[in-house]
Design a protein that fits this description.
Structural class of chain A: alpha/beta
Strand content of chain A: 5-15%
Helix content of chain A: 55-70%
Number of strands of chain A: 6
Shape of chain A: globular
Largest interface: A-B, 46 and 46 residues
Oligomer: homodimer
Order of helices and strands of chain A: HHHEHEHHEHHEHEHEH
Distance between the termini of chain A: 46 Å
Largest sheet of chain A: 6 strands, mixed
Chain lengths: 217, 217
């Protein structure tokens, strides 16, 4: 039986990231320096090294995303699980707010009345927010498809799409829509992803911004 | 580029489970009939077939867990993310309630005052609940270790442990503690797991109970 090591709760994360770093290096995987904190946090959240091969970043997206956060961008998630996972305190320190409209009673009513999906009403509501929006989709490909449709139809766009829905139906195709579009993205190609992964990506960006600003101070 | 298939939102889940079934069969994996709905829902949540090999169930745990739900057992989770993911409506239909004490102000205060971890104060509080408790751990091995310590120290036990923390430090060892104990368990051995996996296991049990009861009615 493995022994429980005594590691202070605050040290577990740093220790985990060291182990991930070692294993990436043992596997001969070299990540882009800017993207590394994000990919590593996704691996930390899933214990799944496959993400080192499948995470896709649009050109320059990390610097761009960090600036969005510094400008007080909001984060909209497709599920309450992803919403719970986002570090709303750090986001608020930069003037941003997190939202998830999915379970709101008025969303369900409006979707029913208009005969459309709740996901598409959520997307409309998010695109009406009068500041830059990071749209993080961890669960439903439907949300990514609705996002693509609204962008095509209205020309309104989120500032950044985090597209990591998980599953077996329309997930791969929905991600391809975002990869082919012109909104900056962080996407995990293939079937894998999840609300936990979406939250981990948001948090990796938030923590990176905080770390850089603390180092500057 | 893959085409988006038109699948009604309500049909996506059934379709996904069919795809999982086909792929399991193509991989020559035969799951125990009782455990299958749980393992399949975990694969549905993660798109990761590795869980078919690593999910461990104590003898007879599925029938036992379904009876716990029918008796109105509560579910305690270690994180708000897992809490958000549990279907609290179905749980309430059977008289159960979901709890997550982790972010409660009094937990933090008490932990600080006594110089112990928040996880261990949460475990104590959970074991004081005056009805059967399903303890679902998706994030922190610390919660499983605290659970083991409290059981050893007080003899109080949860009715069932869902032990699927994820990570690189003490996760494997913490799961081994639960596997070696005498509380019925559902555990994913190794590093993988997560709050989403913990919620998926709870929901698989809840949906199975509802389905069986609907079929009987």
């Amino acid at each position: 039986m493995e022994k429980i090591e005594f590691v202070l709760p605050g040290d577990i994360e740093a220790r985990s990231f060291d182990i991930i770093e070692e294993e990436l290096s043992r596997r001969g995987i070299v990540l882009n320096e800017e993207q590394k904190p994000v990919t590593k946090r996704v691996i930390h959240t899933t214990a799944d090294f496959e993400y080192a091969d499948t995470m896709l970043y649009s050109e320059g997206v990390i610097g761009y995303a960090k600036n969005l956060i510094r400008q007080g961008a909001d984060i909209v998630t497709d599920t309450n699980m992803a919403f719970s996972g986002v570090n709303k305190k750090v986001l608020a320190d930069y003037g941003g707010e997190a939202h998830c409209f999915m379970a709101d009673a008025d969303i369900a009513e409006e979707a029913k009345r208009r005969g459309v999906t709740r996901a598409s009403v959520c997307v409309e509501k998010a695109l009406e927010i009068d500041k830059p929006v990071i749209y993080a989709v961890g669960n439903a490909p439907t949300a990514l498809i609705a996002l693509h449709e609204q962008i095509e139809k209205t020309g309104r766009k989120p500032a950044l799409i985090i597209g990591v829905p998980v599953g077996f139906v329309n997930v791969v195709a929905a991600k391809q829509l975002i990869l082919a579009g012109d909104v900056p993205y962080i996407v995990n190609r293939g079937r894998k992803g999840g609300s936990n992964v979406a939250a981990a990506i948001c948090n990796a960006l938030l923590y990176q911004v905080r770390k850089e600003d603390q180092e500057k101070a």
